[in-house]
Prior knowledge:
The chain is mainly alpha-helical. The chain is about 60% helix and about 0% strand.
Amino acid sequence: MKKTDVYEFYTYLAEGRPNPTSDLEWTSIFTLLVAVVLSAQATDVGVNKATHELFKTVDTPEKMVALGEGGLKTYIKTIGLFNGKAKNVIALSHLLIKDHNSVIPNDQKALEALPGVGRKTANVVRNIAFGEPTIAVDTHIFRVGNRTGLAPGKNVVEVENKLLKVTPKDFVHFAHHWLILHGRYTCKARKPDCPVCEVAHLCKFKNKTTL
């Protein structure tokens, strides 16, 4: 995609969603981190249902440790892979207390060193909580990057690096949100809504759907 097309691409996405936010609900940076960890292979809607009551009282690493793995499971048992996720959340809470004074670090390597926190999770937290110009490539962004020609790549790291390279500075802060929401609601996996897509004229996808 040409540089001028990329700028126009983001301009249209920005006009459609001028103030994009994450669909995940959170009350502190710690609860944001927990929510993103829980959202792996789960829907944001499902995570929000599970954490709605949890985050009313458990919003610090200390409170999470006090709740314990068993207690956490009672809240998140409706989420896929909840046993492993509960173990990771309790373990990362211990490490935050031990190594970071219970403060969520704005550091990629430090975040990725926490149990259950990978590259995508760290990027999401740093973007939303700290305003860092990161782009967390999930299945939606990977699909949009490849399908549209915006940032084709064989894996998430390739797509991430290309997006960071081609995304204009004016748009990089919210690019993560725009691309995820576009992939979730318009450029859907099985049948993209090409007839109503605001960037269809810029998209390189050959098999566009029709009404």
